[in-house]
Every structure is written in structure tokens, then in C-alpha cells.
Design goal:
Order of helices and strands of chain A: HHHHHH
Radius of gyration of chain A: 19 Å
InterPro entries (chains A, B, C): PhoU-like_sf (IPR038078), Put_Phosphate_transp_reg (IPR018445), UPF0111_domain (IPR052912)
Strand content of chain A: under 5%
Distance between the termini of chain A: 23 Å
CATH topology of chain A: Methane Monooxygenase Hydroxylase, Chain G, domain 1
Largest sheet of chain A: none
Pfam family, one (chains A, B, C): PhoU_div
Organism (chains A, B, C): Pseudonocardia thermophila
Largest interface: A-B, 13 and 13 residues
CATH class of chain A: Mainly Alpha
Oligomer: homotrimer
Family (chains A, B, C): Belongs to the UPF0111 family.
Structural class of chain A: mainly alpha
Number of strands of chain A: 0
Protein name (chains A, B, C): Phosphate transport regulator
Low-confidence stretches of chain A: 1-7
Shape of chain A: elongated
Mean pLDDT of chain A: 92
Helix content of chain A: over 70%
CATH architecture of chain A: Up-down Bundle
Chain lengths: 211, 211, 211
Amino acid sequence: MAFRLTPHERGFYPLFTRAAENIAAAADLLAELVAAEPAARAELAARVKDAEHTGDEVTHEIMVKLNRTFVTPFDREDIYRLASSLDDVLDEMEEAADRIVLYRIDALPKGVAQQVGVLQRAAAATAEAMPKLEKMAKLREYWIHVNSLEDEADALYRDLLGDLLAPAEGTTPLDVLTVLKHKEIVEILENAADAFETVANTVESIAVKES
Amino acid sequence: MAFRLTPHERGFYPLFTRAAENIAAAADLLAELVAAEPAARAELAARVKDAEHTGDEVTHEIMVKLNRTFVTPFDREDIYRLASSLDDVLDEMEEAADRIVLYRIDALPKGVAQQVGVLQRAAAATAEAMPKLEKMAKLREYWIHVNSLEDEADALYRDLLGDLLAPAEGTTPLDVLTVLKHKEIVEILENAADAFETVANTVESIAVKES
Amino acid sequence: MAFRLTPHERGFYPLFTRAAENIAAAADLLAELVAAEPAARAELAARVKDAEHTGDEVTHEIMVKLNRTFVTPFDREDIYRLASSLDDVLDEMEEAADRIVLYRIDALPKGVAQQVGVLQRAAAATAEAMPKLEKMAKLREYWIHVNSLEDEADALYRDLLGDLLAPAEGTTPLDVLTVLKHKEIVEILENAADAFETVANTVESIAVKES
């Protein structure tokens, strides 16, 4: 076309994609970390921290662009929400990595690796969905998928809480300080799963308005 | 009718009323649950869970309608907030019911029944207020009432925390794992009371704008 | 001037200034409280509570004015966010003061006084920034300053968590109930630091839009 009266800023899409790919890389590092020997974890946590810094830069870039762009490709408020919720995901994952090292946790409950596995799948689905935002195509299966992953995360979380606070008869109970540490880790991982769902819900609400 | 210049979608009001009536039913079930023998609680928690599913469906119906309606009876953002905050109330109540069963809690602190009693009163007030949204009449006493119930809930919550973490001299202290479990329950119930206040604050802000 | 086409309501600025000055006064009281003998704390906590009531009144005044003002000096949503986030700061500080007394905490970890010191500095910076909102001048250094204070608060918080949950070899560990109490206090103080950052981020987003 010769000219455009509404010069939609398309530069947001690559930024959202970069944010999500960075999250996927961080989720893989977190999976390595929970599978690693305690002595190997500090270095992996430092790399998750680096990914969080990268994420902060992308978020900042989106916010600056948002404040300077007159006509945005979709609602300003939705761009803000999407960027914030992607940022939240990485904050939670970084916090989980950091606390595992800080608390000098030795053996983690088995369910923790499963929680992180769900996060990896949610991260991969999110990274795949972001480039589709521009054409608003095939996003429906993405948010349905992430919502079902969140249900899976909820069930894992609930089982972990039960094991920690009301261990089955015959199992050796952990000392209460260890319960406190483990509980905090599983809660932070659950927050990360919730944050992925918030990302998906934001995408859904954007897509429905555009349809 | 031939045509309408402002085709206000009135269908939101019955949905908000249904959401609030469902919450009131769930609050009554929760009251039954905390008064029941431990063995009878799982079945009641399952019924609270059912109510939560019903609530999710109503929330979803509101959101779909919101995205498809061009002229809404009040601010889109306020409709979104009202639906979300009603949804939050029920999520908290369901979580409280679930955790009491999951943690195999035996005797609950007495204050817990009082917390749930406040929730029942807040739920009844909310269910009564929703049908009045259409005419924006007599809502003032509703939000003042819910705010005072929240103050009552705060005081109960604070007393419960004090009893749990700094029990009076001469009382037998609970073991710390039990403290952890009870603390989580009373916190979730406090979140439910806060969520009712958020509903009331949203209604207040809608009513003030319309006045 | 004879008339104004855009009758901007300027009365918001003094209200934001009052809110922030009240917060600064409360932060000073909180610093006194954590430095005081346990027996002297209840009276100081009561004065923090008074400050919180004063803050609630200012917040309410802002919200009423917001709902009644047709042309606001900046985005309605931003005024709402700024007022709410100032309110949140004081709620957290009041809760910290209250819990220290309620839990009959004796010796607080040293880092707690440092956390409160950071809050005092953030409060002073916020009180100094609010009057500059009208001319939108020299706000950039304010939000950069508060963001760096938040980093400082994060580091203190993290160290405190480490000391509480994974005390260094050779130190006498606290009993777990005391760990629970201290952990709650340091978390609430961290929430207060986060709330100051939310205030600063809101100011940033307002200033960038206006520039």
C-alpha cells in the first residue's frame, strides 16, 4: 500500500518472542539445576540470574517502546500486561533457583523436578506462540495447552504440600526447618506456573478482542 | 423493538447475581465443613470444589460476553475487575476447604469458625447487592457493610496469628508443623475476606462514577 | 486567568505530597520501634497505626476527587495506581510494626534495622518527589534512586532469609517458631520496599507519557 494512516508499530512482536525464548532457556537451566549435584548448582543459578537480567532488558525495551508509540498493534494495557506477566515468570524461576542454593538444600522432593518439567513445557509453548501474535493465528491451542499445564502443575503442587505437611504413615518425616525450605521452593515454582497461565490468559483476551 | 441507539447489554447483571449466589452457597458448605467431624470433611470439600467449577463457568461466560459486547452497561475494566474479584473469593474458599482435608487437620482453632461466619455474612451481602447493580440503588450500605466485615475479619485473623505464634503463658503450645498448617488455613480465609472487600470496592467505584 | 479550556484539577498534587510525608513519618516511627526495648514498642506501633489511619483518609480523599474530576492532570488509571501504591506502602509498614508486638518478638535480627533504614530513605525520596509531579521536573533521579534502594533491600532480605533458614556453621540456630516469626517480619518489610518501587515505577510511567 502507498501509505498508512495508522502506522502500527510492528516491532513489539520480535520483542515478545525474544522474551519468551529467553524464558525457555532459563527453564532449561532450572531443570539442569534441580537435577544437578548440590555443588554444581550455584553456577547454574548464576546463569538463571543472567537470563533474568536479559529478560529485564527486553521488558524495559517493550515499556519504552510502548510509551513512545502512538498507535499500538493491540491495546496498550494488554501490551503492558503481556510484558509484565512474561517478566513475572522469569522472576519466579530466578527466585526458585536462588533459594535452592541460598538454603543449601540437599535432596529436593521428587515432585520438584516434575514441577520444573511442566514449566519447561509451558515455556516452550509460550515461545512458539509469541511469533503467532502478529497474525493472531492458531493461538487457541496454545492457551488451552497452557491452561491444562497449569492444572497439571496445581495437582503436583498439591501433592507436594500434602507430602510435606501431612506425610503418609510410615514415612520418615522431615525436620520442620527443611519442611519450611521445601515448601517455599514448591510455592515459588507454583507461582511460576500461575504466571505462565496469566501470560496465556492475556494472549487469549487479546485474540478474542481482535477476532 | 425496532432499533436501539445504545444497545446496552443487560445480560451482565444476572450473571453477577449467579456468581454471588454460588459464592454464598459455597460459604455455607465451608461453614458446614469446619463444624464437621474430620471424617465428614472430604465430601464437603468436594462440594465446595463443584461450586468453584460452577463459578469458573460463570466467570468465563462474563468474559466471553465482555469481549463480544460493544456497549457495556459500565466500564469494561470494571466489569472485568468485578468478575475477577468474585472469582478470587471462591478460589480462596475452595483452597481453604481443600487444605483442611489435605493436611488432615483434626481440631481447628475456634477462631476459624468465626472467620468462616464472617465470610458467610459477606457472601450473603454480596448476593443481595448484585441485583441492585442495574439500578445502582442502595449499594452504599452494602459496601460499608462489607468493609466493616473486613475489619472484623482482620481482628479475628490477628488474634489467631497471635495465638498460633505467641500463645499465652500457661497454654499448651502446638507442635510447629501444626502451627504451619493452621497458619496457612487462617491466611487463606483472610485472603477470602480481602477478596470480598475488593468486590465491594469495585462496586463502590462503579456506583460513584455513575452518580 | 479569565477562563480555562481544560480545567485541570491541581488539587491532586498536595494530596500525594501529604500521603508521602505521612509515610516518611511512619517510617521514622518504625525505625524507633525496631531500635526500642520490647516494652516500649506497643506505644510506637499504636502511633504507626494512627499514621496508617491518616493515610487511609488521604487515599480516600484522592479517590473521591478522582471520581468527581472530569479532566485529571494525568491518566485516571495512573492517579488510581499512585494512590493505591502509596497506600500499600503504609499498610505493609503498619503490619510489620503490629506483628513485632503481637508475636512478642524479643531480639530482632540485625538486618531488620537495616531494612527499615532503607525504607526511611525510600520514604524521604518519595516525599521529596511528590511536589515535583506538577512540573514533571527532576523525577528521573528519584525513580532511579528508589530502584537502587530496592536492590539494596533485596540483598538485605536475601541475606536475612539465608541466616534464618540456613544459618552458618557454628552459629546457634533459633528455634523454628522464632524462625517463622522473624521470617514473616522480614518478608513484610521486603513487601514495603517493593511497594516503594511500585510507586516509583508509576511515577516513571506518568513522566514518560508526559515527556
